[in-house]
Amino acid sequence: MLSRISIPVVRAAMEKPLSSNAFLQFVPKDMSARRRIEFMAGRICAARSLREMGVGAEFPLPVKDRLPVWPSDVLGSISHCATMAVAMTARKTRYCALGIDVEPLIAPNVALEIQQCICCNEELIGMEKHMPCQVRSLTLLFSAKEALYKALFPLVGQFKDFHAAELCEFDVGSVVLRLTHDWNACWRVGTKIRVRYAWLGLVVVSVVCIPANLWRK
Q: Which fold, 100-214?
């Protein structure tokens, strides 16, 4: 189940008296105002997605090692930026990994600074054959790799940089990333994973959904 919400909507709700928004007491107090709003927006999306599945869960989800703790039979992923928050949930019987990322269009000057950290020149050239705008191409690559990392991290438990996967295929609405080295004994070099994406104005949402039968412990 996928859910999204506008950050301004959450900001307006959080400006109302706490008595009418009692759940806001669960927002960590040590966060900045901006971060608190984005945090709550993501948790609202997660709660909506779980509710649509018919799953009850503690709000706004406990946290362990800086990651949300989902109900035992559920997988989930949350992402947010300055304008939007998204969350996705599914049953573990259907999927072994989920990852979602929402990314605003990277500013041109920032794109120049971070390009080498995100991808090699061949990846960007390959992407630009299908998506002529370099900034959009880089933003999509950034987001797709973030979604892949978020999907696999709970399974491999290791930090990976952006060069741990590379672009190998492009279709309208999806890209395929290939692992450049072994992430663990199950996720080997050469493994290909499809990442679906959609542009919502100047924001791209990337999603990884790996079926349960593809992961063997």
A: Ribosomal Protein L22; Chain A (3.90.470)
Q: Per-residue pLDDT tens for 23-53?
A: 555 566 677 888 888 988 998 999 999 999 9
CA-based nearest residue to 138, from 105, 168, 90? 105
Residues 209, 94: Cα–Cα separation, whole Å:
10
pTM (2 decimals)? Answer: 0.91
Tell me the domain boundaries of the chain: 2-77+84-93, 100-214
Please tell me the distance from the alpha carbon of residue 137 to that of residue 111, in angstroms, as a whole number.
10
Q: Does the bond joining 71 to the residue before it have cis omega, within 30 degrees of 0?
A: no
One-letter amino acid of 216: R
pLDDT for 19: 44
